[in-house]
Amino acid sequence: MSEQKEEAVKVGGENPEEGGENENPEEEAKVDFKPLVQLKEVDVQSGEEDEDVLFKMRAKLFRFDKPQGKDKDAPGQWKERGTGDVKFLQHKESKKIRLLMRREKTYKLCANHFIYPELKLEPNVGSDRSWVWSCPMDYAEEPATPELFAIRFANVENATLFKQEFKKAQKLNDGKEATEEKKDEKKEDKPIEKDLEKLSVKEDEKKSE
Predict the structure, then answer these.
(1) Is the pTM of this model over 0.90?
(2) Beta-carbon contacts of residue 12 (< 8 Å; ≥ 6 apart)
(3) How many CB atoms lie within 10 A of CB 133?
(4) Taking the chain (209 residues) in consecutive chunks of 10 residues, what is each chunk's mean pLDDT?
(5) 47 Cβ partners below 8 Å, 6+ apart?
(6) Helix-, strand-, coil-residue percentages of the chain, each rounded to 5
(7) Dihedral sign of CA atoms 157, 159, 165, 167 in order
(8) CB 42, CB 22: distance < 8 Å
(9) Under CATH, what is the fold of the domain 51-65+80-174?
(10) Is the Cβ–Cβ distance between 153 and 159 less than 8 Å?
């Protein structure tokens, strides 16, 4: 019987089982990729650059969802709006203070409204670390809508501190300067909601991993 020699299968013209003495694997593995599009760094502003942070604390926010349309008579329910840092921001010029909260990671707005002097924080039934309040107009989404919020903190101490700082902000917003501005706004038929439009908050872009 004649002996048959097995031929090695060659890939790309070379035998993968054999290597030349002068071959350098590292040099062969180097590939130079050039980007098709040159991306420039963009300075994304949050809209908070002209404000000072008076208060900041992690919390979970809820909003009361009331059925609309044909189901308007059905009972509403609380829905989670997000977890993140709730902040009290004071504008450097007008000195007005607003409440702003973003969802962690996505930075999407949960709440964005002035801390009106007429707002009332009420204890949430069944919890000593949660507060409820009704906001006449919230600007977290477009169009702005009235909202009933509930906020929950990690412990009683944090909830108590939030209420204390909330009341301080209300007093500052209800000061002489704020009162005079409200009178001027009425004369000019310029509602207070216009001020929030000036403080428009741009959503932070998500960074791709």
Answers:
(1) no
(2) none
(3) 18
(4) 48 47 58 67 69 97 87 85 98 96 95 96 93 97 96 98 98 71 52 50 44
(5) 199, 200, 201, 202
(6) 20, 30, 50
(7) negative
(8) no
(9) PH-domain like (2.30.29)
(10) yes
